[in-house]
Known about the structure:
Blueprint: H1 3-8, H2 12-18, E1 40-41, H3 71-74, H4 80-96, E2 101-102, H5 126-141, E3 146-152, E4 165-167, H6 170-177, H7 179-188, E5 192-195, E6 199-200, E7 203-204, H8 209-219, E8 225-228, H9 236-242, H10 253-264, H11 270-288, H12 299-313, E9 315-319, E10 331-334, H13 359-362, E11 369-371, H14 383-394, E12 398-404, H15 423-435, E13 439-444, E14 459-462, H16 470-478, E15 511-513, H17 522-527, E16 545-552, E17 556-558, E18 563-571, E19 577-587, E20 598-607, E21 612-619, E22 626-628, E23 633-635, E24 639-648, E25 651-661, H18 676-680, H19 683-694, H20 697-700, H21 711-720, H22 724-730, H23 735-749
Amino acid sequence: MDIKQLITQMTLEEKAKFCSGADFWHVEGLERLGIPSVMVTDGPCGLRKQAGETDHLGLNASVKAISYPTGSCVACSFDRELLRESGEYLGDECQAEDVAVLLGPAVNIKRSPLCGRNFEYFSEDPYLAGELSAAYISGVQSKNVGTSLKHFAANSQEHRRMTSSSQVDERTLREIYLPAFEKSVKQAKPWTVMCSYNRLNGEYASESHRLLTEILRDEWGFEGAVMSDWGAVNDRVKGVPAGMDLEMPGPGNGNTKKLIAAVKAGEMKESDLDAAVERILAFVFKYIENRKPDTKFDYEGHHEKARQMAAESMVLLKNDGILPLKKEDKVAFIGKFASEPRFQGGGSSHVNSYKVSGSVEAAKEYGVTYAQGYDTKTQEPDDELISQAVKTAREAQAAVVFIGITDAMESEGFDRADMKIPACQEKLLREVVKAQPNTVVVVECGSAIEMPWIDEVRGVLYAYLGGESVGPAVVDLLYGRANPCGKLAETFPLRLEDNPSYLYYLGEGDRTEYREGIFVGYRYYDKKDMPVLFPFGHGLSYTQYEYSDLTLDKTSMKDTDTLTVTVKVKNVGDRAGKEIVQLYVSDDQSTAIRPVKELKGFDKVELAPGQEKTVAFTLDKRAFAYYNVDINDWHVETGSFTVMIGRSSRDIQLCAKVEVESTQQIKRTYSFNSTIGDIMADPKGAQMVGQMMQAMNPMQEAEESDANPMGAEAMQAMMQYMPLRGIIMFAGGAPEVAAGLQQLIDALNAQ
């Protein structure tokens, strides 16, 4: 299809109309030119296609679809292949339902546990989020269905999300909030990107030329279309030249008229409209020309896939030996979530599930007993329900208490008030533990919670929101039919107040300042060496693994080289399992403020009992770099770096060092306000300053004495931070000293 030629046949009015949706879910079509209208729809963890006619608000019932585990759950799989497979399954479902673009994945960073949409997001770590997102996109788009990478950018709260401005410094933006988008765009090439509701440093994302054109297209090479989040457009006339192509939902009749008027008045170029229409038509025809109308999928097979994904992702946080449960044990399942699980989040990604399987139903063969324990419609304890649950638990050999957060507490559109579970659940749990010391907790919610009762229970399985097959997946893990292998993609703090964004989260009015900067999640907790409930990357198994033979293919390198890292992992237990090997990098001598370690590699390896495998990683410049705002680029400082292999960010097993030489020379400008220490860091400067200092008697009298109690070492430390102008002062303002320093400055600046 010659799209450019097609656009020449469109009127100005048709072009302007094409830049907004036809309705809530459809892109505009144009029958006279043979341009069809195609459908876009939520969501990242299951298809949410409205049946029949779409309504204005997108609230009508959607078709039956498979509800897969949410982003917060599958991220704990640390499994690129699993994410790619899940994308392929969703791509088949989109083809079967004639959906051109699936609105996802969502890769916003988990700045705070309170974000109401954390269940949809992958991680607090940008490297992990980017790797998993790229795999997911590749899977969906392998089926000739597009994705919409969202929400671009710095959309890490739901509170006042349509007007709030995220105030983020450039380095933090580049190191934390943009890399997952960058990786996804460069590696997986999504058909579309969805701009976020919020403002970024005062400017709406939907009209930010810097964000949508300079960074997204010019720097990263994005070639697709940018669409708005639903209702995210503030000024449509500013948006089109900025690079915001498609306004959703439609029809945007008012904004269409504004675009036409702006072109006619010379306030906007018609070529900007042409570019927007071209990018929209590109994904429309990419789908149409690769449409597979005969695609069918097996609902039962996909339901089972959701079960496998959940079992691969759930995290065993604590186990003192009580798990796996024995088939012959008499076990009580306690809590309403055991029979009616919470398996997905609220809001735009809510799926009309094919079928939902709870844990009580899935454990029938084990003869479990059941007591409701609490009502999900209230947080108030029900003494009668608790009493019955305690009796049921006491009569069993072990109790599994199912707790979590309700849809009313955690959803798109608003943020959580705290990290607590409902009072009715906490009281139930404490009463059950008193009656039954062999108690295991299963948690079903989208993000981290506080666990003041953690020392009172023997085991904790974090199910997150595990999709419609959550029940069988939980039972598989509890009884050892599957071996837990998920690891936390976020840190669980002991309490909300420990979170680095606590003092600033939500912000003041329509301004929220990201004052914690790059210290998000484990980057903060590990830097402060602060106790946490469970660290990033933590997760237990029913077997044990040993690490050995960490090897680097070189001990020194330039930042333009790559480093190959290998390590051996062995299953020394008696069960088959999967271990997630995590690689972190630390800059040992950085002059920039940096985290003590950052995740730069991971791999999930399957091992039979006694089996050993070698895992390999390749590290490039970005693994050692930080974003230097003075040069607006990624920069590696020459020096020593430590490569760490760990089970989590707090459980480092092996370390090795490599010397990295920077090939990027940063031009420094010196003046009379440059310090002696900064000058001495330059080899030429050190030589010249040394000669000058020897000629200055006042600076040589540094031996400790009554007149100089500081001594030589202390004097040198003080002198390190003295500006050059201070030498003139100590020299009595001697003109020859000033002239000599000026020569030094000129010589250094001439390098």
